[in-house]
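Intended use. Records like the one below are meant for learning the mapping from a protein sequence to its folded structure. Do not use them to infer anything beyond what is encoded.
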Amino acid sequence: MLGDPSTSLSESARLAALHRYAVLDTPPEAAFDRAVQVAAQVYGVPIALVSLVDSRRQWFKACYGVDMRETDRSVSMCTHALDHDGVLVVPDTMQDERFVGNPLVTGPLHIRFYAGAPLLTPDGLKVGTLCILDTVPREFLTLEQMAILQALADGVISELELRRTLAEQARERRVHAAVVKASLDAIIIVDHDGCILEWNPAAEHLLGHTRVNVLGEQLMTLIVPAHHHDRYRRGIAHLVQEHTTSQRRLETPILHCAGHAIHCEYTITSFWVDDEPMYTVYIRDLTEVRAAREAMDASHALLRAVVDSVPETIFVKNLDRQYVLINTTGAARLGQPMEAILGRTDEDYFPASVAARRMRDKIVLETGTRMIAEFTEQFPDGTHRHFWTSKDVYRDPSGNVAGLIGAAFDITERKRNEATIRVHNQTLQDQVEEAQFEILARLARAAEYRDDDTGDHMNRVAMTAAGIARELKLPDDTVSLIRRAAPMHDVGKIGISDSILLKPGRLTPEEFEVVKSHTTIGAGILEGGHSPLVTVAEEIARTHHERWDGTGYPSGLVGEAIPITGRIVAVADVLDALTSDRPYKRAWPFEAAMAEIRAQAGRHFDPRVVAALERLTRADHPR
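Structure written out for the chain above:
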């Protein structure tokens, strides 16, 4: 009869309203039983129900004329009443297509007549119905009859609201009683005459009096020392005059039943019941608190001594960036006594750098993260010092950022020493790198002499490669690195046998594979270097035989995957090889060599590099 229940927001709100009543699956209650009995009698029907429609079922809080607690929502007639405005009346269920096949109609109950008035919450949500049923068809209800049925349904809602209110009040009373009982502080409630109405277990423990013995007694004469009675009366009178809920708090001695005084925090709060004042008294034993305060004072004194003993600046600032603490070292550096610095800001001492200081403080305070910085500062006396600082936020007991705490270490002497060491180390590094590269250059030249009588091939390649790099608008330092590293491009030939390297005829495929290995041999000789020069030299040695179209060696790199240094030296190397005599060939004319290089643009060579070579050779022939 009915599809899946609606999962819309309105259905969710309706179910939430139903569940707030906490009435489902509860035992029968007289108020609801009376409602269905009255409805049945008023309308002369055999059956009346208070039906509450849950997500998958309808549950009956009250039943008259039938012993049934719930049905599946799919056969619920009341579900249809939820979708109907006002009272739903079905004179003959057998004539209504919604119900003709319903088990409640065709089954043992033989329901032939139905009328249901919605149970409307104060928020206008329908949580169920008050319905009347008959086993025979009936006339349609008059407007007056429907109004009476709706009024009875509204009475059911009033009972549900009352039931919920009473349950909430009972819960509040239980919670109140539990809080009073569980409180670690003494809680005492007194009436307008000062007589004790409530005395919790903590009061028994703290003051030694049992609850049964103090109820109805005067609080003042019981626990307030005689010399504080006038003070107590004045405080009560002041609370009464305010005629509002107000509070007074003080630290005062309170009498124990044994006669000795306990130092306590005494808080009295007024409230009004039926226009008469009543008071809640909270008493907290401060014995341990006082001990803790004394220990804290001692701890603060120790901390102050430790902070002042540190030979570097330690400071604390609040959210307004005012100094709230600074140690003696920091005060001495500012040339002011500590008392004069507290409450002031960096604007008073560092006007030249106040913007940078303000920004550093702002970042720390807004992000809540630690900041470490180094900076040079000019002091009021005109001197400049270099500092390493660490700043972080500090938080209040609630976890909110309350300011920042920092330390500043004077590293002026350390920076001077570091600068001296850096200069010395750079000089040593330059000397070592120069010596290393000279050794590698001599190896390259030794390899070159085996293949070139003059050994000038590597220098010509270097000059041409540097010229191409300039034409490509590469940075000057990159051009310089290429010029110095390019001579290393064939250093790997030192590992190739003379019988292959100097062979006058064509190489066999096997011999050519051996020759190709000079790229990886050269890269192996140069790899692991730490200087940019050796790194670029290793890159050139490994990649200067790669081809733009990916047919080169040793890795078959394609296009711009080949480092620009390798692409430049590839062109410069081939140009010099073509225009130079070799044991196995005569030198080509320069124009023939350039024509061959142009023909290989886009296959062997990067077209941009070839174009740069042409611009270079038009301006200045490299040979």
